[in-house]
Structure formats: C-alpha cells, structure tokens
C-alpha cells in the first residue's frame, strides 16, 4: 500500500515538473519571437517627414541614360501611427478614389494603374520635374505613399508605366528615407514605311508622257498592198487601151 502511494506521488511530481518546464519553454519562445519581431521591424524616424526624397533613374534596357521627358509626383497617402501600427491614410485629393491601401504589396502595378486613371479623370495636380540629366529627384517629401506618372514622353521611348513608391522603404531591415526607383524604359521601334501609293495620289513611277511605241506596226503593209493593186490595175488598163488602139488601125 505504501509502495503504491509513493509511486503516485512520484507521478504527480513528474507531471508538475513537466508542466513547469513546458510553461518556461513557452515563455522563452515568446520572448525570442518578440525580440525577433522587434529586430525585424526597425524603429521609424518620424522626424524625417518633410525631409525624405524619391530619386528616379531614367535608363533604358541597355543601361543607357535617357535625358528627356517629364515625371509628375502625386502624394496618395500619408503614413501615420495608430496604436503602435503604421497605417496609410489617403490624402484629400485621393479620398474619393475608393482604392484600398491595406497592403500595397499585393498588386502595386494594378494599384498604380488605377490611381493614374483617377488622376487623369479628376484632373489631380502634382509636382512635375523635367528630366535633363537622366535623374529626376523629388525632395522635401512627407512620409507616405506616392504615385509617379510620366506626363511627357521621352523621345524615342515608350511611356513609362505608372508606379507607386513608399517613403520610407524597408531595405534589409533598415528604413531608407531616400528611395531610389528605376522604371523600365522600352525603346520605341519605328513602324515600317508603307510603299503602297494611295489611290487618290498619282503614281510618280509612271510619267505623264506616252512612251514611243516599239511594237510591230501593221498599217504600212495594208497601204503598200493597196498601192500595188492600184498599180496592177492601172497597168492592165494601159495594156488593154494599147491593144484597142492597134486593132483600130
């Protein structure tokens, strides 16, 4: 009987120790995860609002610098802190756009296209900078989300697709307050010329004057044949007249 009670006490103590170890392990893991999350999310320097910038490098697919065209920047949203979370709040100009900014990384190109259409349809004004040396810089920016649209096409290139830029940008665990962007610039291929003349336009390849006829002419044959027949008839008449004259003598 005593042996059974001792065994039960040992089992009870083993369970208690197991629960204690499990609790300690869970607390340790939670602490590690919290520390990892804190390390993965760098602290934001809110004093950089109004001092940030976006630099756009204008280069084609071969790395050649493009020095033409105009880019226009629109501030879509401001970055704010809500109960420790960072959230985007649409600016007054885009409040009626109806776009969702819960996660701009889901479809940034689709979001940019939607915003560009809204800008055009509602005549939203932005900040335009002409490209003179292959680099376009927008500085003095608040923290937030921005839309970049090429409002003046670069000569010899397709228009750059609209794109969105977040300021600041998390780069390798550090916030970058001067964000670099390098949009794709496609070389404009000229269309082949159509050599087919228009129906309403004269064909310059054909001169107005008629070319001299170089083929065989048949009318001289008929003229000469007719003349020959007349000569034969005239000869016959002369012969017949001569015979009648001799017969009369």
Short key terms for the protein model shown above:
alpha+beta, 5-stranded antiparallel β-sheet, 3-stranded mixed β-sheet, 10 strands, 34% helix
Folded structure, characterized:
The chain is α+β, with helices and mostly antiparallel strands and 249 residues long. 34% of the residues lie in helices and 24% in strands. The protein is built from three helices and ten strands. The chain has helices spanning 2-40, 108-122, 219-248, and strands at residues 52-57, 70-82, 85-90, 127-130, 135-141, 144-152, 163-167, 169-171, 174-176, 178-181. Strands 2, 3, 4, 6 and 7 form a five-stranded antiparallel beta sheet that branches. A three-stranded mixed beta sheet has the order 5-1-10, with no helix packed on it. Residues 21-40 and 205-217 have low confidence and may be disordered.
Summarize the structure.
With 249 residues, the protein is of the alpha+beta class. The chain has 3 helices and 10 strands, in the order H-E-E-E-H-E-E-E-E-E-E-E-H. Residues 21-40 and 205-217 have low confidence and may be disordered.
